[in-house]
């Protein structure tokens, strides 16, 4: 009798396990088709001397990697990508924190403001680029017009005429587009912090700045970790804003890694070399992700301390 019950129980467990495999299998197959196969194709392409899409190429081993690493554009482009990521990360985080703190305060029209704050993020990239290029232009641009009329500058500023100003302008444009999304994420994290902590701190005489440092920031550690990781991976792969505004110029001053890879593949017709550059970029991003998770991932003790 006991053996019969055990046999039936084992069959039931096997059926459940098979059902679980059957339910997960379509997703696994989809991931293999959409992620694993393209990655395999990219790595394979990086070992071939291919110039145009659809054509064959000879196997050249590590020659593409050697040419990319020894080129005069790879190192500077990697450095510009670092500047791009850091600039966007700092500016977007500061703007998002300020906006989230304001939207977390009680005021008339707060619900409407929380709804419309996401508007810049949903604006199509092309539309945002056209508007910003018109605003920052030297021919009737509203920014230069206002600065001249207020007497802040004596002549029009060429926001895209030098490398430093072009990169700074691009960082501002991109941060304007994406900080609303971070605002919503931070605001949601703030809503999860117990309001009793703020009330108790206020009774103890803690200032607003002290409450922010000792309650808000610790309570947002998990949110900030996810934002830092996902935001970095998102920023490093941005191509459209940079290419639509400057195309990597002036004098390659805004040529980040995605723009460089595009230039190699579709303007220089060196697909194999572009694939090698993409693989190297992926390795750097992967190493960064591992280090970020290892050193900055919130531990259980940290989260418990934040909620005490």
Structural summary, described in words:
This protein is mainly α and about 300 residues long. It has one domain: MetI-like (MetI-like fold), CATH 1.10.3720. About 75% of the residues lie in helices and about 0% in strands. It has 15 helices and two strands. The protein has a two-stranded antiparallel ribbon with strand order 1-2. A hairpin with an 8-residue loop joins strand 1 and strand 2. Helix 11 packs antiparallel against helix 14 and helix 13 packs antiparallel against helix 14. The radius of gyration is 26 Å and the shape is flat. The C terminus is likely disordered.
Helix content: over 70%
Separate helix tally: 15
Tally the beta strands: 2
Task: Note poorly predicted spans.
Answer: 303-308
Q: Provide mean pLDDT, rounded.
A: 88
Structural class of the helix and strand makeup?
mainly alpha
Strand order across the biggest sheet? 1-2
The biggest sheet amounts to: 2 strands, antiparallel
Q: Give the number of domains.
A: 1
What's the architecture in CATH terms? Orthogonal Bundle
Q: What would CATH call the homologous superfamily?
A: MetI-like
Q: Beta-strand percentage?
A: under 5%
Instruction: Just give the CATH class.
Output: Mainly Alpha
Span between termini: 53 Å
CATH topology: MetI-like fold
């Amino acid at each position: 009798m006991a053996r019969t019950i055990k046999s039936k129980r084992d069959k039931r467990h096997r059926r459940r396990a098979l059902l679980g495999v059957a339910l997960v299998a379509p997703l696994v197959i989809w991931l293999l088709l959409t992620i694993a196969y393209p990655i395999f194709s990219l790595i394979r392409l990086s070992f071939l001397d291919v110039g145009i899409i659809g054509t064959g190429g000879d196997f050249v081993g590590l020659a593409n990697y050697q040419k990319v690493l020894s080129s005069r554009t790879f190192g500077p482009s990697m450095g510009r990508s670092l500047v791009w990521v850091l600039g966007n990360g700092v500016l977007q985080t500061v703007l998002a924190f300020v906006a989230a703190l304001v939207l977390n305060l009680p005021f008339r029209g707060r619900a409407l403001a929380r709804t419309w704050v996401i508007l810049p993020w949903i604006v199509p990239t092309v539309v945002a680029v056209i508007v910003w290029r018109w605003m920052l232009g030297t021919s009737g641009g509203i920014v230069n017009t206002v600065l001249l009329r207020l007497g802040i500058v004596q002549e029009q500023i060429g926001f895209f005429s030098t490398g430093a100003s072009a990169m700074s302008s691009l960082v501002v444009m991109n941060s304007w587009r994406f900080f609303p999304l971070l605002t919503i994420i931070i605001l949601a994290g703030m809503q999860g912090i117990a309001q009793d902590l703020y009330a108790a701190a206020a009774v103890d005489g803690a200032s607003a700045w002290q409450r922010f440092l000792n309650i808000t920031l610790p309570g947002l550690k998990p949110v900030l970790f996810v934002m830092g990781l996902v935001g970095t991976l998102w920023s490093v792969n941005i191509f459209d804003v940079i290419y639509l505004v400057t195309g990597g110029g002036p004098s390659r001053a805004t040529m980040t890694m995605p723009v460089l890879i595009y230039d190699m593949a579709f303007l220089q017709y060196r697909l194999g070399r572009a694939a090698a550059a993409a693989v190297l970029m992926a390795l750097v991003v992967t190493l960064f992700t591992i280090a970020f998770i290892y050193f900055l991932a919130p531990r259980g003790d940290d989260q418990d301390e934040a909620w005490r």
